[in-house]
Each structure stands twice: as structure tokens, then as C-alpha cells.
């Protein structure tokens, strides 16, 4: 089933959305919010699934679904922890700022705790105080968990993935080096992240979901121009169950925890860092990677970071070409 939170108060209003994303029906009589549904998932998910089936059959009142009416599926979440599962991305962004990548990054996932009190809906602007802060997007896949007991291993974590969605982990590249040098991790360099209009249960993904990875291309566009379409199932060194087990190693995770994949990034067949779309490659899911590859290939970066008025679109299509989650489409703006 496909679930969305329409803009309403702080936590949105839960709706069930049709598979083709054209219609929706209210689910508030089952659970007022997505968090409430996740808190009592075993009891409520079957009722939501029944409602989804009735929506497909046209046997419940429905209304037109508009992606721009959506908040993030979880407009505020108890936890948003973003992994870095595509080590190709980590290697490139570190190279871009002249930092070594320890060999342990291939065996031990990187993860940071993002702010989750104000997650952005799919059409909400990226507001940045300064164009010179290196405004970048990061296209990612994310999962939402049920309650995960402390110490759960990957096999247990696999069964606790409730929903899958897309994320834009907005990053301010110029702030990263100074902030990470302090040794406490990202804070100002990671403003609010945005999420796709719809979150889906894993069964909705068919064979593209193997229980641990999503094997489909994640497409990004900047100002309407294709920027990248790497496959989210390839080069994901740490799968979602492994990332969840990592997060739960020393603490339990509450239902509604969001775990991000990190920026989706593919290597070339020869192990190289891929090529930009303009050079016939799959491109990238963030500007920093493309700038690093331009530097490697041509001696300098020429793709600018985002400026006020630019737009970023992130979307994933199924094998038949249909949008699965709806699109994240954000304009970059100065504060009002
Ligand atoms: O090391 C840096 O300069 C920046 C790293 C990231 O932004 C990585 C991140 O947020 C996780 C990821 O996308 O893999």
C-alpha cells in the first residue's frame, strides 16, 4: 500500500493513496497520523491494507491526490539517521575536500543523526541563508522501521522495515570541512531533509525489493535537466538491514525511525568513479560527486552548486515507467 500525510497541523493527516498516485482516501478513522499507525502497526496495517484495496476497487469515497498537498510522510520523526552505504560517494566527497578515507569504511558503516523535528514535504523550498554555502542535494532511498530492540541483528532488522520512501539529504558543502574538523559531526551543514510524497510498504515494490536493497534507478534533475540515474541496488555496500542493525547496536529504535541509505552512487564497470550524464555516464545523485569527477577528468570543477531559484527533482520509476513514490521537487530560496 501507499501512504501519505497531507499537510495538516504538525504531523499531517494520514491518507491511503492509489497505486497510480491519482486518488486518495482518508485514513484518519484508522489512524490520524502515520506515526500513530506505526505505533500500532500489527493491528492497524491490515486495516489500512483493506482500505487500500477498496480504494483500488473504487468502493470508498476518494479525492484527487496532488503531490503538492503533501507534507513529508513523517513531518516530524522521533529519529532520522542517515547511513552512507554507497562508499563510492564517501570516497569522492572526501577526495573533494582533501580528506583520507579509512579502509574501515568498507566494513563499518558511517551514520549520522539528522535533525528530525522539521522534515520537509516534497514541494517545500530549500531555504539557505547564503548562496555561497555550497548548497547541494543528495538523492537517497530511506526506510521507516517498527520498534527495533537494542542489539537486533540484520536478519531481525529485515523483518522490521515497514515503509520505503525517497529522501533529499540537503547538504551545505562549504560548511562541512570546518564542522567535521571539530569532531562532533554534521549539524549546520545538514539543514532539513525532504521526503517523497508517498511512503510504500515493501510488497508494493515487487521483485525490485529483495528485502534489503531496492534495485531501481534513482533519477535526479537540476533545473529540468537530467543529472543522474544511478541504480540504488548496485554498489550499496551496506544494505538496509545492516544499517538498521548498526543504528540499534547500543540503543533501541522507536517505531517510526527513518534510516537513510546515503547518496546513491555507482562505480563504473572498471571500478572508476562513474561519468557525468553529459559524458554518457549514469551521472550522480549530488553535485559534489560530479564536481570531483570533473576535477579528475578535466582538472577543475565547472558544475556550480545550487543557487537561489534553481530546482531539484528526485524520482524513482518502476520497470513500467510509473512513478512509485511521486517526486521530490524543491526550489532553492533565500529566507523571507
Ligand atoms: O564527508 C563529506 O564531506 C560529506 C559527506 C556526506 O555528506 C555524506 C552523507 O551525508 C551520507 C551520504 O550521503 O552517504
TrEMBL record:
<dbReference type="InterPro" id="IPR011234">
    <property type="entry name" value="Fumarylacetoacetase-like_C"/>
</dbReference>
<dbReference type="GO" id="GO:0004334">
    <property type="term" value="F:fumarylacetoacetase activity"/>
</dbReference>
<dbReference type="InterPro" id="IPR036663">
    <property type="entry name" value="Fumarylacetoacetase_C_sf"/>
</dbReference>
<feature type="domain" description="Fumarylacetoacetase N-terminal">
    <location>
        <begin position="1"/>
        <end position="76"/>
    </location>
</feature>
<keyword id="KW-0378">Hydrolase</keyword>
<dbReference type="InterPro" id="IPR041072">
    <property type="entry name" value="FAA_hydro_N"/>
</dbReference>
<protein>
    <submittedName>
        <fullName>Fumarylacetoacetate (FAA) hydrolase</fullName>
        <ecNumber>3.7.1.2</ecNumber>
    </submittedName>
</protein>
<feature type="domain" description="Fumarylacetoacetase-like C-terminal">
    <location>
        <begin position="80"/>
        <end position="332"/>
    </location>
</feature>
<dbReference type="Pfam" id="PF01557">
    <property type="entry name" value="FAA_hydrolase"/>
</dbReference>
<dbReference type="Pfam" id="PF18288">
    <property type="entry name" value="FAA_hydro_N_2"/>
</dbReference>
Amino acid at each position: 500500500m501507499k501512504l501519505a500525510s497531507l499537510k495538516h497541523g504538525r504531523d499531517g493527516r494520514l491518507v491511503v493513496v492509489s497505486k497510480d498516485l491519482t486518488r486518495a482516501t482518508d485514513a484518519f478513522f484508522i489512524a490520524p497520523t502515520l506515526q500513530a499507525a506505526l505505533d500500532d502497526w500489527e493491528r492497524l496495517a491490515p486495516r489500512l491494507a483493506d482500505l487500500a484495496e477498496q480504494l483500488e476497487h473504487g468502493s470508498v469515497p476518494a479525492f484527487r491526490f496532488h503531490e503538492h498537498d503533501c507534507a513529508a510522510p513523517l513531518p516530524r520523526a522521533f529519529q532520522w539517521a542517515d547511513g552512507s552505504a554507497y562508499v563510492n560517494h564517501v570516497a569522492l566527497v572526501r577526495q573533494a575536500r582533501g580528506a583520507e578515507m579509512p579502509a574501515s569504511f568498507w566494513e563499518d558503516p558511517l551514520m549520522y543523526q539528522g535533525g528530525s523535528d522539521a522534515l520537509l514535504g516534497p514541494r517545500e523550498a530549500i531555504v539557505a541563508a547564503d548562496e555561497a554555502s555550497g548548497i547541494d542535494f543528495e538523492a537517497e532511498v530511506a526506510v521507516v522501521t517498527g520498534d527495533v530492540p537494542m542489539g537486533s541483528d540484520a536478519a531481525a532488522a529485515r523483518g522490521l522495515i515497514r515503509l520505503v520512501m525517497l529522501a533529499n539529504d540537503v547538504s551545505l558543502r562549504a560548511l562541512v570541512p570546518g564542522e567535521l574538523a571539530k569532531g562532533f559531526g554534521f549539524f549546520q551543514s545538514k539543514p532539513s531533509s525532504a521526503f517523497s510524497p508517498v511512503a510504500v510498504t515493501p510488497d508494493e515494490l515487487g521483485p525490485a525489493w529483495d528485502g534489503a536493497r531496492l534495485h531501481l534507478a534513482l533519477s535526479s534533475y537540476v533545473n529540468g535537466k537530467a543529472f543522474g540515474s544511478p541504480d540504488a541496488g548496485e554498489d550499496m555496500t551496506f544494505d538496509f538491514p545492516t544499517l538498521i542493525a548498526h543504528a540499534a547496536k547500543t540503543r533501541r529504535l522507536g517505531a517510526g525511525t527513518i534510516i537513510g541509505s546515503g547518496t546513491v552512487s555507482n562505480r563504473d564497470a572498471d571500478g572508476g568513479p562513474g561519468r557525468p550524464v553529459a559524458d554518457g555516464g549514469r551521472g550522480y545523485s549530488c553535485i559534489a560527486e560530479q564536481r570531483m569527477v570533473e576535477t579528475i577528468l578535466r582538472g577543475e570543477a565547472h558544475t556550480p552548486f545550487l543557487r537561489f531559484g534553481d530546482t531539484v527533482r528526485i524520482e524513482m520509476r518502476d520497470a513500467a515507467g510509473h512513478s512509485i513514490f511521486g517526486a521530490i521537487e524543491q526550489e532553492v530560496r533565500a529566507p523571507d
